[in-house]
Design brief:
This protein is α+β, with helices and mostly antiparallel strands. Helix content is 18%, strand content 39%. The chain contains two helices and five strands, in the order βαβββαβ. A five-stranded antiparallel β-sheet has the order 4-3-2-1-5. β3 and β4 form a beta hairpin.
């Protein structure tokens, strides 16, 4: 299951980042690493961007990047 599959208002735990290189670095710079708790706050009407909460910070994440983050529902 990926972060893109999580519904608004639900939480999950990051299990793995699938991408490599620049995209992986950008995701990790946001504080999204293995074991991080993520809450989905809002999804735009067309699905991009996804607003999330990670470690007390509210961030916007591209849908394409969310598909590279494997999660486990909380």
């Amino acid at each position: 299951m990926t972060l893109d599959d999580i519904a608004v208002g639900k939480s999950c735990t990051v299990q793995r980042l699938n991408d490599t290189g620049e995209i992986r670095r950008r995701i990790m710079d946001m504080g999204i690493t293995k074991g991080a708790e993520i809450s989905v706050l809002k999804i735009a009407p067309l699905g991009d961007p996804i607003d999330i909460s990670v470690r007390g910070y509210q961030l916007s994440l591209r849908r394409a990047d969310a598909k590279n983050i494997e999660v486990e529902p909380a």
